[in-house]
Amino acid sequence: MKTTLFVFLLVIVSFNPTGTSAQDTVPEATIRDPSDSLYHPKETDSFFKKLLQPFKFRENRNRRDKERIRRFLTERIKDNDLHLSNDSLKIFLDSIVMHLKDSIYAETLGKLQSVRYSCSFLEQAPDTALIAKDRLCLRPKVQIIGWHRSGAGNRFKNYNYKYLTAINLYGYELGIDGSSKNPKSWQEFNEEGGVIALAQNNGVDTYLTIYNESASEVTQFLNNQAARHRLFNTLVKYKASHKITGLTIYFDHITAKDNARFSSFIAEMYNTLDMGADDNFVLNISIPAIDGRNSPGKANAYDFARLNNWVDYYYLRTDSITRSNSASAAPKSPLGATDDVEYGSIQSTIAFYSNANISVSKLVMTVSYSGIQWPVTGFNGMVRPLGRPNDIPYKAIRASFLQNKDLQSVIEQGYDSVSATAFLNVKGSNKKNTPEYTQIWYEDRHSLSRKYEWLLDNKLAGVSIRGLGDDDGYTDLWDVLGASLIQIDSVQVTSSPVEPQEDPKTPFNNSMQKTVTIAIVVVMVLVGIFLVYRKAN
C-alpha cells in the first residue's frame, strides 16, 4: 500500500504547469485541524467559493459539478478523514487545473496551427485558385490590437498576424502647431516591406496613434484652430493613401477644463475625415485606468455622452495601473485587488467606465509583455519597495531568471490568483555579502489565460497588447492568445464568408467540461487513497 501511495504522489509531484526550475523554493504544506472548518461553516463556504474560482465554471452548465466537489470535500473534512489545510488543498487543485489547461492548450494549438490563413486574409484575396473552395481560416473572437512603436526595428517581422485584428502604430507625436515632432516615424512605418505593408498584406488593419504626454501642450493645441487644421490636412492625406484604416488619440493628460474643447476636436476630426461615410475607418481614444486615487477626476475630462457619437473603441490604459511610487510592490496590470491595497485593477476600471455611459462593447483592456521589477526590503507581509521599479521585458525574465543556470540567487516562482499575475521572489547578495531582495511581477500564459477568459465572460470589445516583441524568442504568450481568443471558421468562394456563431467555441472552450470532470476524478482518487492509507496505518 505504501508503494502505491508513493507512486501516486510521485505522479502528482511530476505535475509542473508553471515551469518550476531547480532554483524554485516551494513552501511546505501546513497541516491544520479540520475541526476549524467544522465549527466555522461560513468560513468553509467562503473558502470553497474561492477554491473553485479558478475553474471558472459556466454558471448553469457546471453548477452540479461545482456542488459535487464542494459536497465531497466538505463531507471528508467533517468526518475528520481529510487532514489538509485550506492553502495546501487550494494549491493542489490549482496545480491540477493548470496542468489540465496546459494539455488542452497543446491540443487546441495543434488545431490552430494546422490552419494556414486568417479569415481576413482570405476575404481580401482575389478570386483565384487560392480560394477555389471552402477553406478553414482563423478568426479572432474579439478585437486584438498589437502596439508597434517607432524605433522597434524589425520586431514587426516576428508578429503572428493571424492572431491580430489591427496594429496600432505609435506613432505621431503631436506638436502644439499640429505637426509631427517625429516625422521620420511615418517614413519608417510606411517604407517598402515595412510594418504597414506586412500588416495589410496579412489582412490586418493599421491604426495611427496621435499622442502627446504634456497637459499644457494639449491645451495649447486644442485652443489653436490653425494647429488643428494642420493635423487634419495631414491625416486626410494619410487616409486617402489607404495606408491607415483608423486613428487612436492618446493624450496622456487632459484637464477637466479642456472637456468641451476635446469633444469638439474629436467631432471636427470625424467630420473633416468624413469618417461617417466609411464604416471601415475606426476611431479610438485612449483613456486612463482607475488606480484608486484621483483617476475618477481624470476621467471627468471626457464627455462620454458626446464622444460615444464618434468613437468606436476606448483603449483603457490597464497595462500600467500601479504607480512607480506605490507604497507596496505590485503588478502593473492586476485583474482584481484586495481591499487593503492602494492601487486599482482591471475590474475596478471596467466597472467605473461601464457606469459612466460607456457600453462594455466599446471597452478594450490593455496588457503588456513587459513586467515590473521592484527592489524590496523582503518578502514577508506587505512587500515594501526600496526604490522605484524598472520595466523588464518578458524575454529578459525568461533568459535572466527562469533559464539562467549560472544565477547565484534563490528564486521562488509563484502566481497570485487575485491579481491574476505571475511573480518571482529573487534573493541574492551584493559585494558586501548583504542580502538583496527583488520582486518581479509579469504576465505568463496562466495569467493571460485568466485575463482573456475574464474579458470574454464580461463581453469586452477586446484587448490591446503593449510591448509586442518583448517576448521575442518565445512563443508561449502568442500561444495563449491563440488558444484563448482565436476560433476556427471558414470562408466561401463566391458568397459572403460564413459568419461566426454568436457564442463561438474554440477547441479549448469545448474541452473545459472535460477539464472539470477530470479534476473531480483526480481529487476523489487522491482522497480515496489517503483514506485507505490511513486505515492501513
From TrEMBL:
Reactions listed under catalytic activity: Random endo-hydrolysis of N-acetyl-beta-D-glucosaminide (1->4)-beta-linkages in chitin and chitodextrins
Catalytic activity, EC: 3.2.1.14
GO molecular function, one term: endochitinase activity
Signal peptide start-end: 1-22
Name of a matching Pfam family: Glyco_hydro_18
Entry keyword set: Carbohydrate metabolism, Chitin degradation, Membrane, Polysaccharide degradation, Signal, Transmembrane, Transmembrane helix
Domain GH18: 141-488
Keyword Membrane: yes
Full protein name: chitinase
